[in-house]
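Task 17 of the worksheet. Students: predict the tertiary structure of the chain below and write it out as structure tokens. Keep your answer in the requested format; marks are given for formatting as well as content.
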Amino acid sequence: MSVTQASLGNPARLQQWMQQQNISGSPAQLSSTQMQQASRELKLPLVDVLNARDALINQAATQNEQAGASSQQLRQSSTGAAASFGGKSLASSPAMTRFQAQTSGATMTPAMEAYRGARYTMDDVRAAQQAFNLPSLAAAKEFIGNAVLKGNEAVLREKGITPGNFDGHECMAAFRKSGYSESDVRTAMKKFDFLRDGTVQEAREYIGLKVLNNYESMLSEVGITRSNYDRHEMMDAFRSSGYSLEDARKAQQAFDFLKGSPLDEVKEYIGLKVLNNYESMLADVGITRGQWDAHECMAAFKRSGYSDADAKEAMKKFDFLKGGTLDEAKEYIGLKIVNNYESMLSEVGITRDNYDRHEMLEAFSKSGYSTADALAAKEKFDFLKNSSLGEVKEYIGLKVLNNYESMLSEVGITRNQWDSHELEAAFKNAGYSDAHARKAIAKFDFLKDASLQEAREYIGLKVVNNYEQMLRDVSITRN
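Model answer:
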């Protein structure tokens, strides 16, 4: 394409622009990105920038040709000076040999000229060097030029190398230079349907393509920018940091501005602190990358199957927990879970099992069963006759834990306070005697046909329900 009349001064402008940008070397080495930048900043169509580049290349070639002619004259003039050097020609000296090597390439080969005029970029050259295992970038340029001269560019196209600016390797180079991150790549694969089944490499090239064609707005619309602080990047920083879900929950409670936020936003906030190296703000409220923060130990306890009864038992068994709180005991158990040292707990009878002795005893205490129920059970079940009262209570607690209280109710033992044995026990414990029972049979018509046992239980019932006044009204009082 010839340079238009309107762009005749463009080579000088392009050369001046290169100097301002501190771009050294041949204009032929300008990348597609640099030429697009020149087009924008010089306010020239891209085609005029390309033509200006070609004009500068041609000027350099002409200067090289002139330099080559001057060197030839110098070589010829050196012959007459041979006598001064012991009869040896200066042209054959090591210094002149090096000079010849440096100047012999001053005139471009046809292949190099073909490369210069073909609109291939330096990214194409690098791709060719790698694809065809060429020893240098110069050799890669010659290879491309020869393909152009011989009409064999198909061999280049097979490797994805074309004169266009949007080959895969060019898009990849644009991605690498851009500041976009691997997190941006993963997000692109989620956000764009056409990338979901593609490879990571294809997603990188797609981002690079948006950079090359100045259409990054398509990326920013889905939250992908060159910034390091996109939401997905903050989330990735959280996930790779060692902070846990429990850390996020703790932050949600510790910082007022996060209290109404979803957990994902809290995780992103922690990720932001990681990215900007300001984790001290988290550490100040007990949130660290370690697995042993108090809130993490507490969470481990809650998920574990250990019970409050286990925590209470730990407070009895371990001296260092005796003056502490129930929460501290729970955190200690959680710590043993996190560091895989639960054997220290099992050695004192604390396990994840629901049927530790202290748990059965606590179940009994909370159930509504009484000591009188335990005494009745000891009498009713032969296998408990020689057991201690504590063991009998544990047995009743076991029936509570495994939902098998029917075995107790079949022998008259219930959570009810008015079981026969409980009334009998209340009668005896209150100080009433069989004489009181006989007097009750005489005084109350509804007891006239009752047995002495039934009369005792009736008096015991009045004790249990705090209604002994009914007894006192007929002169039945405790001894």
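Marker's comment: Residues 46-77 form the longest helix (32 residues). Confidence is low (pLDDT under 50) at residues 1-8, 74-106.
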